[in-house]
Specification:
Shape: globular
Largest sheet: 4 strands, antiparallel
Structural class: mainly beta
Number of helices: 2
Number of domains: 2
Order of helices and strands: HEEEEEEEEEEEEEEEEEEEEEEEEHEEEE
Strand order of the largest sheet: 2-1-24-23
CATH class of the largest domain: Mainly Beta
CATH superfamily of the largest domain: TolB, C-terminal domain
CATH architecture of the largest domain: 6 Propeller
Strand content: over 45%
Distance between the termini: 18 Å
Length: about 375
């Protein structure tokens, strides 16, 4: 009976893959003068275990907003809120009443918008209650404002359309999008990335709804990008930044490669209006991801056996040894059921796998006790 229960516990607790629980926001100095692309003085400005993402600079470039995970709230769009960070003195302000994703300052810098419950909300900087700008829209996932009346929206629906909202009606246009629509400088158009099968394409759509393919993307990436003052486009893959130029649409040269351990899985890029600062979002280093993966496996098992009183299994890692794309976890396993306890050492072999969005996950391949 004891061996049968131990086997059952093993089958229940084996994780299929590591879960990335943390992203951090980083800011650095950027020099793009005379064709250069130099990033320096990069620092973590969120420093918060959990989700931190979607940075957006204010028009004066002196501060930016980003999204952070709220405490003890699980509802989509209500489980995160905005944070404002000032670059000069490193001061930050939690805007806990500004719930939602994608906090974006308005052009006059007096207000900002977020997305929650499938629609866009307008917030005052003084904390007054927000109001919905698109109450008729219920399934938006990202947004880009054209003017007071019109919007370009990513629809969080099975077909993932990029759509136009004209103030009264919604027109779904291009399916298969995997990114937000990004305003193209100097043009009445947006760019975005679509995926069909394993093929990812950079697309353009003007405000009439006409769309065209700009380029094929030849490297793993989530597709999030930023336009530069020299009318090129930046996109990340792992620890590299590629710069795309419409004058050479098939070329995606690497303009920067980060060596910092915590900047090996970049998922987002934002530039200040003067392009003298760059904000990045990245998953943490491998040690952090592996430890969070173990925590997730322990919590998952605890939830799965919560109805069985007195049953638990906790694996506490003592070390993670990483060699290339393989990691070895060693630690102590403690299983309890009723008055019984089984305590022993364990070893888990993990393998790092590159995902199509250009970040790595760790998959548990083998466990020994």
């Amino acid at each position: 009976m004891r061996h049968a229960l131990a086997l059952t516990l093993t089958l229940l607790a084996l994780p299929a893959a590591a879960q990335i629980l943390t992203t951090e926001v980083w800011v650095g100095t950027l020099d793009m003068r005379e064709g250069r692309f130099a990033v320096s003085d990069v620092k973590n400005i969120s420093g918060h275990p959990g989700y931190d993402n979607q940075p957006a600079f204010f028009p004066d470039g002196e501060s930016l907003l980003f999204t952070t995970e709220a405490e003890n709230v699980a509802e989509t769009g209500l489980g995160v809120h905005a944070v404002r960070y000032w670059l000069r003195d490193g001061r930050s302000q939690k805007l806990t009443r500004a719930r939602g994703f994608s906090p974006t300052p308005t052009a006059d810098a007096k207000q900002f918008t977020t997305l929650r419950e499938g629609t866009v909300w307008l917030h005052e900087l003084d904390g007054k209650p927000p109001r919905s700008l698109l109450p008729e829209v219920k399934t938006a996932g990202y947004y880009s404002r054209i003017d007071e009346r019109r919007w370009v929206l990513f629809m969080n629906e099975p077909e993932r359309h990029i759509a136009l909202w004209d103030g009264t009606s919604l027109k779904r246009i291009v399916p298969g999008a995997i990114t937000a629509p990004y305003r193209i400088p100097g043009a009445d158009a947006v760019s975005f990335v679509v995926q069909h099968g394993e093929t990812k394409k950079l697309m353009r759509m003007d405000f009439s709804g006409a769309s065209q393919e700009l380029a094929r993307i030849p490297f793993p990436t989530g597709g999030a990008h930023a336009w530069t003052p020299r009318r090129t486009l930046l996109m990340a893959s792992g620890n590299t930044i590629h710069e795309w130029n419409p004058t050479a649409p098939e070329a995606w040269p690497v303009v920067h490669r980060f060596t910092e351990p915590d900047l090996q899985g970049i998922t987002r890029i934002a530039l200040s209006p003067a392009a003298d600062r760059i904000a990045l979002v990245s998953v943490p280093n491998d040690q952090t991801v592996l430890r969070e993966s173990r925590d997730t496996a322990n919590k998952t098992f605890a939830e799965s056996v919560a109805k069985y009183r007195g049953t638990s299994w906790t694996r506490t890692p003592a070390s993670f040894e990483i060699s290339g794309d393989t990691a070895t976890e060693r630690g102590t396993s403690v299983r309890r059921w009723g008055s019984n306890e089984l305590r022993n050492d364990y070893t888990v072999t993990w393998r790092r796998v590159m995902t199509p969005n250009g970040t790595a996950v760790w998959v548990a391949e083998r466990e020994q006790y």
